[in-house]
Design a protein that fits this description.
It contains 22 helices and no strands. The chain has 471 residues and is mainly alpha-helical. 55% of the residues are buried. Residues 442-471 are annotated as: Disordered. Residues 442-452 have a biased composition (Basic residues).
């Protein structure tokens, strides 16, 4: 009886639109900040546990774990997006944050279960998707690119201090305290969603009951990909996104491990690197992005971002000294302007009734990359015999491994070639165009649940451009 009362009370909280104030971008920003701050604390402990659990083929196993998580996110994102269109954003914010953070306490309980749950948690690890849906509900079209940039910058801000704090606390008091602190912050995030986050989806856009039908096309992760060839401009954009995000997804999954192995960075150095990169990314995605969009235009901003990404990946691939990694990190921060610019281009080019279809295609491409990228990087590290011998490597050992290798980071060089192809494809994308991709079933859904006064279609909220990235 007591459990039933608790369940009813929790259901009441989830279904209530009330929160603190009216829905705003700042609610979404706090949710993202707390979630990734918790994971940022675990940066150094995760590297240690990963090496201790998989002493052989560490890069390969890391790639497979993150690859499975990414593929599961790709498969589940459309269904979760469609359900959030029907049941509201608040309940799915709670669901995604809870399952994304569920592996945290398992790190010290059972490392094998920790990595297993990380892989399976990919089914619900789509917090960014729901957060961008939340933002799309409450912003006008001309405000959306800046709002997306603010949320992306918040992700970077959450990693400015948390890895350094986690490394310091782990060295001073042990990793157990870090895990407890990360778990507490994750619980704080869940409580914030329950108590403070108001529902962003207007009542008239949601059915009265939880039994509204969901069509298979809405839940089919490959449905949006099937429409890619219907418009040549959409095809060019999707190819550009695939070729540029595939190496980025792989880089996110393995780069901190790479800094420890090849460059001999300490935990404190990795934390400092993340902090500097985060600060520069915040500046790039807010001030620099706004200036570039006004001065050189949308398409040229994308090309500039891709150019920075090529330079960054090539520097990572050939770099043989720690200072080269720091310099390449500064370039990497500038390359973070690419995807907010792509999002803005798609939003401006597509008609209001086509936003969801076009954004869904790009979301599908990026979700696929989140699965393929980490696995590909892990496999390339494996075939080039880049393995961990001892995690806290002395500088002399690290330097020797670099000298004996012509290409210290083979996957990054592969990534640079991939982004170069993306840049060549992006040259053919026109600055201003109308994207003509239709979806009759999607329109039916829009007609049944649409808001006549909302500038964005519900489909855009269902399938925003940006996806979760791996910490």
């Amino acid at each position: 009886m007591f459990c039933m009362k608790c369940f009813n009370h929790l259901s009441f909280l989830l279904l209530q639109p009330q929160g603190i104030g009216s829905p705003s971008v700042y609610h979404a920003v706090i949710v993202i900040f707390l979630e990734f701050f918790a994971w940022g604390l675990l940066t150094a402990p995760t590297l240690m546990v990963l090496h201790e659990t998989f002493p052989k083929h560490t890069f390969l196993m890391n790639g497979l774990i993150q690859g499975v998580k990414g593929l599961l996110s790709f498969l589940s994102a459309p269904l979760i997006g469609a359900l959030s269109d029907v049941w509201g954003r608040k309940s799915f914010l709670l669901l995604t944050v809870f399952f994304t953070c569920a592996p945290i306490p398992l790190m010290k309980i059972s490392p094998w279960w920790y990595f297993a749950v990380i892989s399976v948690s990919g089914v619900f690890a789509v917090t960014f998707s729901v957060v961008f849906a939340y933002v799309a509900d409450i912003t006008q079209e001309h405000e959306r690119s800046m709002a997306y940039g603010l949320v992306s910058a918040t992700f970077a801000a959450s990693l400015v201090t948390s890895p350094a704090i986690g490394a310091y606390l782990g060295r001073a008091y042990g990793d157990s305290l870090v895990v407890v602190l990360a778990t507490a912050i994750a619980l704080l995030d869940i409580c914030f969603i329950l108590v403070a986050v108001p529902e962003s989806l207007p009542e008239k856009m949601r059915p009265a009951s939880w039994g509204a039908p969901i069509s298979w096309e809405q839940a089919d992760p490959f449905a949006s990909l099937k429409k890619v060839g219907q418009d040549s401009i959409v095809l060019l954009i999707c190819i550009t996104v695939f070729l540029s995000y595939l190496p980025e997804a792989g880089q996110y999954s393995s780069f901190f491990l790479y800094l420890r192995q090849v460059m001999g960075f300490s935990s404190e150095s990795v934390a400092a690197f993340i902090a500097v990169l985060g600060i520069l990314s915040i500046i790039a995605q807010t001030i620099v992005l706004s200036l570039l969009m006004r001065s050189i235009g949308n398409k040229n901003t994308i090309l500039l971002g891709l150019g920075f990404q090529i330079l960054q990946l090539a520097w990572y691939g050939f770099g043989s000294e720690p200072w080269m990694m720091w310099a390449a990190g500064a370039v990497a921060a500038m390359s973070s302007i690419t995807f907010p610019a792509v999002s803005a281009l798609v939003s401006r080019s597509a008609d209001a009734d086509q936003q969801g279809v076009v954004q869904g295609m790009i979301t599908g491409i990026r979700g696929l990359c989140n699965g393929l990228g980490p696995a590909l990087y892990g496999f390339i590290f494996y075939i080039f015999h880049v393995e961990l011998n001892e995690l806290p490597m002395p500088e002399s050992s690290a330097g020797g491994s670099v000298v004996n290798s012509i290409i210290p980071g083979p996957p990054f060089l592969f990534g640079a070639c991939s982004v170069l192809l993306a840049l060549l494809v992006a040259l053919f994308i026109p600055e201003h165009t109308n994207l003509n991709v239709r979806s009759s079933n999607w329109k039916k859904h829009c007609g049944s649940h649409g808001h006549p006064h909302s500038p964005q279609a519900p489909g855009e909220a269902k399938e925003p451009l940006l996806q979760d990235t791996n910490v």
